[in-house]
Each structure stands twice: as C-alpha cells, then as structure tokens.
Amino acid sequence: MRPSGTTVRRSVVVMLALLALWGGVHGCVSPTVPIGPPGGGQHLVLSFATFASTVSPVLERQGCDAGGDCHGGGIRGTLQLSPPGAKDLAFDFDQVSMQVYPTNRDQSPILTRPLALAAGGTPHPFKPFATTTDSDYVAIRAWIQAAVLQ
Known about the structure:
By secondary structure, the protein is mostly helical. It has one domain (40-149). It has helices spanning 5-27, 48-61, 89-97, 109-112, 135-145, and strands at residues 44-45, 148-149. Strands 1-2 form a two-stranded antiparallel ribbon. α2 (48-61) packs antiparallel against α5 (135-145). The protein is elongated and about 90 Å long.
C-alpha cells in the first residue's frame, strides 16, 4: 500500500523540523565574550569644563544661539543651541560636540562653517572668523585639539 499525499507531507515537515532543531542545537553557539563595536569603539572625549569657560562664551559673544532663526529647533542646519534667556550648557555642549570630527578635527563643522571661505571655511550665512588666527577661532580649535581619543 502506498502512503497518501497527506502522510508524505507530514513526514517531510517532521523531518525538516528535526533537521532544524538539530542544526540549532549543534550549529549555533553564543560567543563567551561580547564582540566590541566596529573600529575599536574609540570616541572623542571633549572637556565640558573648557567648553563652559571658553567655548560657550565665544558662541554667546558671536551671537550663536537659538535667538532669532539661527540654531533654534533645527530649522537651519544641524546645530541646535539653547536660547539666550535659558542657557543650557549641557545641551549646548552635546550639540557642539556633534559638530567635531574625531579624526580630521580641523575640518570639523564648528570650525569651518563660521570661517571665511577665503580662509578655508565652508558655506554658512554668518562668518565671524575672517582668518584662522582670530582669537575666538583659536579658542574653539584649542578645545578640539585638547580632546582625547578613548
């Protein structure tokens, strides 16, 4: 007597399930040590204290905040800062830190966007730094250069 089509299908399903179970038990083993992030997981550690004492005053002096339509709510570009009447240094630090390139620091947007095009800057509607020797530019650059890769 020949087995019916239903019996054959059930047998095939059972065999596939057993093979999958066997493969799962013998073929998959969790690593004993978690795998680290790609690229070694290094990140740039910038000084909050230096930001608060040096960089934030530069930003305030240059009018870089959420006042008007500049740097408020992400309506222009990627840098959002707190408003003049409600300064939040931790928020501003986090936002400015995202504008720093860990490997090519001199090309960080926080340095190139406010820098005149003739001095190597990139497009930005406001150019407070005419040259790389401007004392405020130098202060921001020193903060970035003092950061450590960890």
